[in-house]
Design brief:
Oligomer: single chain
Distance between the termini: 19 Å
CATH architecture: Beta Barrel
Order of helices and strands: EEHEEEEEEEHE
Structural class: alpha+beta
Largest sheet: 8 strands, antiparallel, barrel
């Protein structure tokens, strides 16, 4: 018997592109909601408090139907991981991707997120994300990768 089919997404920022595998085994509801929300095209910003990570807001779609409590609560955002937090009080969800050492934080302290996808090789993307600290906002596209 074969295991479940792996699903992949593509993240493209400022000419750099990386493939990430959805983490269905860790957070199936959140991964499915992300999958159903694609494609996403918006602005990516560098996080001020979370370390080496950039974030984007999602203002509509299935991600907003998830509960605010994380499906698999973590605070550390390891390099190459895409994580999710749902913020009903603000009317959006946030996706963050780390290019180094990161932890999800607000001015009031640490908060929890759910890991939803992971990149294995994404050096060109990490370089762009790192430069965003000084270069500022860039457009981002997240799409499904055909099987």
């Amino acid at each position: 018997m074969q295991g479940p089919t792996q699903r992949w997404i593509s993240i493209k920022v400022h000419g750099a592109e990386a493939r990430l595998r959805l983490l269905d085994e860790y957070s199936p509801r959140s991964a499915e909601a992300l999958w159903q929300s694609l494609p996403i095209a918006t602005q990516l910003r560098h996080g001020k408090l979370s370390g080496e990570a950039c974030f984007l807001d999602v203002d509509s779609g299935p991600l907003l139907d998830l509960p605010a409590e994380p499906e698999l609560p973590v605070t550390s955002i390891y390099r190459g991981y895409l994580v999710l937090t749902v913020l009903p009080q603000l009317g959006h969800a946030e996706l963050l991707i780390s290019y180094g050492v990161a932890e999800y934080r607000w001015p009031t302290g640490r908060r929890y997120v759910t890991p939803v996808a992971r990149a294995d090789e994404a050096e060109a993307l990490y370089d762009v994300l790192r430069r965003m600290f000084s270069e500022g906002v860039k457009p981002i596209e997240i799409r499904r990768v055909a099987a």
